[in-house]
Task: structure prediction
Amino acid sequence: MHFLLFQFILEISFFNSEESVLKIIETASKMAGIELKDPSFFLSDLLYSVPFIIKDGKEFKFVHKTIPEYFATEYLNYPEDSLNLFKKNKRQ
Result:
């Protein structure tokens, strides 16, 4: 989850289409070594179960600016874990 949200932050703080969001979910889950049966189920969780993201028209964005700030800070506090994820992804 942390890596997904950090990747989301790196790309842009909002997306202009559902396809963009699903693509970043797929990329981030592969980098984190998480197998998703269907990325749209994870997106649904982010929208409804644990609403970190809202849909505004065709755009998707965080419900509040502190959400990406929190995950970015947590991600940066564990640089060894972060580095390992990037190294793992480069080998694939």
Remarks:
- Residues 18-32 form the longest helix (15 residues).
- The chain has a mean pLDDT of 78.
- The chain has five helices and three strands.
- Helices lie at 2-11, 18-32, 39-49, 66-77, 79-91.
